[in-house]
Amino acid sequence: MSKIKVCKHTVDYDELVKALKDNKINFETKSCIHKCSKCHEKVLIKKDEDYISAKTVEKLISKLNDEN
To answer: CA geometry: angle at 8 spanning 60 and 21, to 5°?
Structure first.
């Protein structure tokens, strides 16, 4: 199973967490995932060793669902 980490400082954090829960996607919250330049501009998660970003939460959830 993939391990998804969400930075507390990512854009639209609250909306992202709600969307992940609504889609039954397991994740953990971190205070930092060390990609601040991206994290403060886009919705960003770390999946295993890869970073996935999108301009909106909906697009990020779509990318996650497309991978599965």
So the answer is: 50
Q: List all residues 6 or more positions away from 60 whose beta carbon is below 8 Å from its beta carbon.
A: 16, 19, 43, 45, 52, 53, 54
CA–CA distance, 35 with 62 (Å, rounded to integer): 21
The pTM of this model reads 0.87
Residue type, 27: F
Q: pLDDT for 46-61, tens place per residue?
A: 999 999 999 999 999 9
* C-alpha dihedral sign at 53, 17, 57, 27: positive
